[in-house]
Amino acid sequence: MIKKRCVIFPKDVQRITGRSERYGHDILKKIRIHFEKGENQFVTISEFSAFSGIPEQVVNDYLS
Predict the structure, then answer these.
(1) Residue 54 CB burial class (10 angstroms; 0-12, 13-18, ≥19)
(2) In which domain, by residue range, is 27 found?
(3) How far is CA 12 from CA 1, 24, 26, 39, 47, in A?
(4) Does 59 map to a domain?
(5) CB–CB of 6/43 below 8 Å?
(6) How many domains in the chain?
(7) Which 3 state secondary structure label does DSSP give 58?
(8) For 19-60, how does the pLDDT look when each residue is reduced to its tens digit (9 = 90+)?
(9) Which residues pair with 7 in a beta bridge?
(10) 14 CB neighbour count, 10 Å cutoff
(11) Which residues fall within 8 angstroms of residue 60, CB to CB, at 6 or more apart?
């Protein structure tokens, strides 16, 4: 059984958007604020998809 990650990191945002890794950090920070999460809490793929408007399946394809 293949297990996939359920969280997204700045490097993943960089690969998906084509922007810098710093941009990835900024986006994840905005998502944490939007979903009222703490600084050390992870951002899930579904939260990133809901915030960015990118379908979850497209995000999962980049993470594979």
Answers:
(1) middle
(2) 10-63
(3) 23, 8, 13, 18, 14
(4) yes
(5) no
(6) 1
(7) helix
(8) 999 999 999 999 999 999 999 999 999 999 999 999 999 999
(9) 44
(10) 17
(11) 4, 45
